[in-house]
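Aim 2, interim progress: modelling of the adenosine-5'-triphosphate-bound target.
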Amino acid sequence: MENPATVGQLTDILRQGGYLADRGLATALFVGMSLNRPILLEGEVGVGKTEVAKVMAAAFGRKLIRLQCYEGIDTNQALYEWDYARQMLHIRALSEHQVTDPDAVDKLFGPKFLLERPLLEAVRAGQGAVLLIDEIDRADDEFEAFLLEVLSDFQISIPEIGTIRADSPPLVVLTSNRTRELHDALKRRCLYHWIGYPAADREVEIVLIREPGISAALARKVVAAVQRLRELDLAKPPGVAETIDWARTLDFLGESDLDTSTAQDTLGAVVKDRDDLEVVLDNLQEITSGARGS
Ligand SMILES: Nc1ncnc2c1ncn2[C@@H]1O[C@H](COP(=O)(O)OP(=O)(O)OP(=O)(O)O)[C@@H](O)[C@H]1O
Ligand SMILES: [Mg+2]
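Predicted structure of the complex, ligand included:
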């Protein structure tokens, strides 16, 4: 599909794909897509950072290429590796049959033995891809610096093969949970958008768009309770993902209402920390009444 012509059009396309983007997020995506700028999404846990990249890829018929970052990730895992096992087999075959091809050794470091990792794959796919660099804050400093280099010119040099360049860069979405501060240089390259918790009305809409079978009344109850939970000082406040899970759980159990006893029985869908659980149980009445305490 072609790039959208307006922010509104992009918002509609995402909605059809099951994702509700607010104006700010849709604008960042629209500009990023149109001007080839990477988008850095930061936000709380479970607020739709990863999902938006997936929906963008699906909605525009692009391939989703995901680079999941973790502590200790290095350039080999991100760019390319040589397929040692196949190289060894090839060498064995060569020695058994005597070498007749004078280029045989050079070919060992040719495209046939190259294993593409996400960044190389994305450079090759260019505009046909959405590159999701997920949870960049988990990778270390050096890796971030290396990423910055790749993102600035979208070309990758492989000494044995040459330089591979993207004609038109892929759409790049980076996400971070802010477990550490990212470098200014990386931020400067990107369009930045913070995804916070949605307002209640919007969260109800999100639940209903993901789980159309659930009644609006139940969705509203669950959202009110979750919003109340977020006001408590929990170690792990529930994200939108938990709201959806909770609503789905209640619906599955045939519950159409959320009172203290049904809440207590199903808390495992939203509260996933033992200390938090105690706090929540102490406040269950207030949480399920939807009352907004001060
Ligand atoms: N705006 C939204 N529209 C539709 N669905 C949403 C939205 N926000 C969140 N969701 C739902 O919440 C789920 C969790 O979102 P996602 O995994 O993208 O969160 P995240 O921000 O990447 O979380 P984490 O920080 O844990 O990686 C998604 O599968 C999706 O169903
Ligand atoms: Mg995520």
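Residues 261 and 270 are 15 Å apart (CA to CA). The mean pLDDT is 93.
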